[in-house]
Structure formats: C-alpha cells, structure tokens
Amino acid sequence: MINIHLAIHNPWAKENFVSLYEASKLVAKHKAVEFQVMRYALTLFEFSFRWVIRDDHAGLTFEFGLLGYSMMFKFYDCRHWDHEKKAWVVYPDD
Q1: Mean pLDDT over residues 54-83, rounded?
Q2: What is the chain written as a DSSP string?
C-alpha cells in the first residue's frame, strides 16, 4: 500500500460536508470508477494519493481540495480480498 496524505484544515470553520456531484460506473466485470465533488468548509488544502493491492476494494484513489472544495477520483476492484487464501473472494454468480 502507498498512502500519501497532506491536509491543512481551518479549525474555526463550522463542519458542513455537502456532496455536490457524484458519479460511478462499472467499467469491467470487477472494476469500477467513481468521481465526486464536495464542499467541506474545514478544508483549506488537501492532497491525497492512495494505491492499495490485495485488500478489499483495492485500487487507486486521488483526492485534491482547496478552499473548501474537494474532488475525488477512484479506480478500484469491487471484490473483497481473502487474506487466508490470498485470493479474491469468488461468489457463485460472479
């Protein structure tokens, strides 16, 4: 896993999270993308990059926020990871 996160928040702002736009789409049998734009008053600056393999919903996440607005993009696997078997959990209807 790679996880890089830097955030500067305004401690005097009132917390008010509002999702302004959300979209998600299945792009392959087990792969999906998501995009979200949100208003979060506490955020002055935020940068986040996360890459996860061999875990539930493994994939890539990127988030950037500036002056109370943020956008997030995710490309991930919809399946869950079985740590004991070291394989994706397979359901009968998959």
Answers
A1: 91
A2: -EEEEEEEE-TTSPP-EEEEEEEEEE-SSSEEEEEEEEEETTEEEEEEEEEE-SSTT-EEEEEEEETTEEEEEEEEE-S-EETTTTEE---TT-
Judge whether 61 lies within some domain. yes
The whole model's pTM is what? Answer: 0.81
The verdict on residue 76 lying in a domain is: no
- Token pair for 55: 């875990």
Strand duo 17-26 + 31-40: pairing: antiparallel
Question: How many domains does the chain fold into?
Answer: 1
Across 43-61, average pLDDT: 92
pLDDT tens column, 4-44: 999 999 988 888 889 999 999 999 888 999 999 999 989 99
The domain of 47 spans 1-12+30-68
Tokens representing 19 are 């999702």
